[in-house]
Specification:
Number of helices: 1
Structural class: mainly alpha
Order of helices and strands: H
Largest sheet: none
Distance between the termini: 96 Å
Number of domains: 1
Number of strands: 0
Radius of gyration: 28 Å
């Protein structure tokens, strides 16, 4: 009757491990998603800055010419 007393503990451990795994996976994916969003926002910001710089340059060129 040894295995019968062991199984509930194993079940609890298993569910805890699974919960931890799900939590860690969720955290990792959320972190990756967050970094992706940040990178996209940075890229967009750089693009907009570049566009405004180009606009300034074209205005300067028009002024010069």
């Amino acid at each position: 009757n040894h295995s019968a007393t062991e199984t509930p503990e194993h079940k609890v451990l298993d569910t805890n491990n699974r919960h931890f795994l799900v939590m860690s996976i969720g955290m990792v994916t959320r972190h990756l998603y967050f970094t992706e969003i940040v990178q996209v926002l940075l890229a967009l910001f750089q693009c907009s800055q570049k566009h405004s710089q180009d606009a300034k340059m074209s205005k300067l060129h028009k002024l010069i010419s």
